[in-house]
Amino acid sequence: MKSYEEINEKIRSGKAVVMTAEEVSRLAETMSAKEIAQKVDVVTTATFGAMCSSGAILNFGHANPPIRMERIELNGVPVSGGLAAVDTFVGATDCNESLNPKYGGAHIIEDIIAGKDVVLEAWAKGTDCYPRRHVKTIINKETLNEAILYNPRNCYQNYAVAVNTGNRLLHTYMGTLLPHMQNASYSSAGELSPLLNDPECRTIGMGTRIFLAGTQGYVAWNGTQFNTEKPTNHADVPIGGSRTLALVGDMKEMSTEFIRGAYFEKYGTTLYMGVGVPIPMLDEDMAHRVSISNKDIETVIEDYGNGHACLGTTNYAALRSGSIEINGKKVKTAPLSSLYKARIIADTLKTWIEKGEFTLTEPVRPMPKKSAVKPLTMFDIDE
Predict the structure, then answer these.
(1) Does 159 lie in the same domain as 84?
(2) Range of the domain at 241
(3) Closest by alpha carbon to 237, among 269, 198, 268?
(4) For all residues of the chain together, what is the average pLDDT?
(5) What is the phi-psi region of residue 174: left when phi exceeds 0, alpha when psi lies from -120 to 50, beta otherwise?
(6) This prediction's pTM
(7) pLDDT tens-digit profile of 315-371?
(8) Which residue is catalytic, options 52, 95, 129, 310?
(9) Could you tell me which of 45, 37, 151, 145 has the C-alpha nearest to residue 87?
(10) Is 201 a catalytic residue?
(11) Residue 232 sits in the same domain as residue 323
């Protein structure tokens, strides 16, 4: 077994052996888990895809006279006025449908990171301590006191493949689904994806240092809808959406190369995020986990044209091949996430570690061992 400190000492001395998860998957074709554990110190994982449950906390600073902002718009997009007095939370899917449905909170976040000016307008009732009732000005990365990216749910451990057996075209967060099952959409970096390489979150918890949109960030908590109750396959990987991560980082240090606002037709805005997580090679069990390959990672196929009915399972080797077979029909596949970008992130994180610029942090709080996702409880309430 290796400790975090032993691995970090190797990193600081420039002696750490760092490999991407894809490289380890190839290495596992000729080496045992025990041999890999002895040879490798850190494995880098990554993903780049649409993560709607993302957002940013901004602090504008006080005007003179001051205002307690209650209704706030950024470039015409309504954002939260509930963080008095001059803070707001910008959600990735915030938008002004009547003004421009294709521009939303995700694009505001991208614009701020890019150094662009954003119009801030806010209204208030006025109080004795905050007498101003209206303000309209320009803000940007330099004028903001803080710009903190805080994402409640990122890096889904696994996610269902989406198809449509219905008669009409469907516009979804999984992209456009053609009728009569003419296409299948999926979103994962497969064997490179962070939570598929540490499926039980042995090394990932609160305080884990990560690559976040071009800079160093942290795992802040378990993500919302964190689910440990999904069935697993022969490789002990959950089949379908399971665990998630809440992430935090400094927007002022991020790069638009790894974070971009996007719009899905007739669905809305979303934020494409680049995340990289280092996995310390603590022991033989971790070596076994990170040796997983696309053919070992299964996920379910859901019919969005029929209430998300399950049509079976497939694996990421098949999905990457360009087509899968569903109930005897050959269906073309296409990813929503970018494997190309994920590989850049994994390689960048690998370089940071090899140069001694990035050391590993041991979680200060582990992820929950048991956690279920409950549906919304519905009551008959008079409107």
Answers:
(1) no
(2) 4-52+151-354
(3) 198
(4) 97
(5) alpha
(6) 0.96
(7) 999 999 999 999 999 999 999 999 999 999 999 999 999 999 999 999 999 999 999
(8) 129
(9) 145
(10) no
(11) yes
